[in-house]
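Before a computer can learn anything about folding, someone has to put a protein's shape into writing. The three-dimensional part falls to structure tokens, numbers that each stand for a local backbone shape. The protein below has been through that process, and both of its lines are reproduced in full.
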Amino acid sequence: MAEKDGQRSTNRPLEPPNEGLPRCYNQLVGSNNPKKTSWPELVGTTSEEAKKKIKEEMTEADIQVIPPGYFVTADFRSQRVRIYVDQSDKVIRTPIIG
């Protein structure tokens, strides 16, 4: 134990929380229904297949297909999912919420 100015400091270990932490940013504390935030399984599929799958799992999604060389804004939107595709319309990056 460290002494500071003649006083002993007692650092007790922290107690674990009663409930688990959220597994993703949209999950409510205490909820057991995490919301999916990314779709890595869609890399290599066409943009149409990717849009269909994302809409099945997140009906409120605002899906944007981003062709090669296009610029996008850096703002975060919890309903937006961007799908980056190559020249042959195949998904090249994991679609994520943002």
